Amino acid sequence: MGYEEMWRDLLPIGRVSGGGYRRFSWTAAERECRAWFAEEAGRRGLTLEQDRNGNLFAWWDVPGGRRDAVLTGSHLDSVPDGGAFDGPLGVVSALAAVDLLRERGVTPVRPLGIAVFAEEEGARFGVACLGSRLLTGAIDPVRARALRDGDGVTWADAMAAAGHDPEAIGPDPDLLAGIGCFVELHVEQGRALETPVGVASAIWPHGRWRFDFTGQGNHAGTTLLPDRRDPMLPFAHTVLAARDAATRHEAVATMGKVRVTPNGVNAIPSAVQAWLDTRAPDDAAVRATVADIRAAAEKAAREHGVEVALAEESYTQVVDFHAELRDRIAATLGGPPVLPTGAGHDAGILSAHVPTAMLFVRNPTGVSHAPEEHAEPADCLTGVEALADVLENLIAK
């Protein structure tokens, strides 16, 4: 089954009205994506394995064992109403690249694996790249098991309901020791790429923080304005402060998720939870942006008789991709553009443990994490050829 047929079968899974996707970890849609991947791996005679953290691997093995393996792939989960390409493009392209390598008659001397990492987006349980963080030990398994979704379901309960053992999650040094390098292909998530394919230089530092505003619930019609302790007001101040702080520090800051309690039209909220995503070219700019936003939130909370607390849920420092691997890939592809990105990826988490690199496929709309995310079929096929060229250079020599 070729590239176009794989897309045809994958595209309907988890699609919602409006054209976006909701493929959240351990849900029916995401499980269907896993089954799709298992079937495609089986078609190619690849050895399918799932590690203790819910990550999937399809292996093209070679005699001598799984040592110094080349790993590629991406993820299949999505943000709420996300686009079709973020994650799946890297998985479909990896499978198609295997087909192309076999058509070329390539005989690998290094094992080749295709990974599907779990909970890359953090859309359900709040921590991005959770599967790769667990694999590498970047998150405490006790904390991971206790992570909850919006309905109060824990990662442990969701994993157990899917038939897996949440008590087994955690670092897997043996698996990591067998990986010689990781190359992730991904749709470019802005308008920075003007050619079909580019190479990543670095990932900006980025993190997620949760604000908890606690006030007093009351009647919307009978409570006088001076008597109110409305947490929505300091939250609103904080949203505006995030934009101002990001502008000052040449960063980006987004408050795109909020929960209001009790969330009634005729009730003053008693509590507001809101999540901040901040990214910048360097760590100092990220930290300064968050500090300014926190100060603004605390000031507004005092003025409105509301309590506020801030918790850091995840943070990833700047990732400079492996220079030798990046340059080897660039030379293999004839000198494509090399560019940084503000988007986080599993490649960034793995980079602290194995040499990593990334390929980008052009996104003409510049839109990502939304239904309008797009890559032209011709560019995607160019991406498959580029990935195959890179993998051939790595596994056959």
From TrEMBL:
InterPro entries: Amidase_Cbmase (IPR010158), Bact_exopeptidase_dim_dom (IPR036264), Peptidase_M20 (IPR002933). Keywords: Hydrolase. It comes from the Bacteria. Transmembrane segments: none annotated. Belongs to the peptidase M20 family. This is Allantoate amidohydrolase. It comes from Actinoallomurus vinaceus.
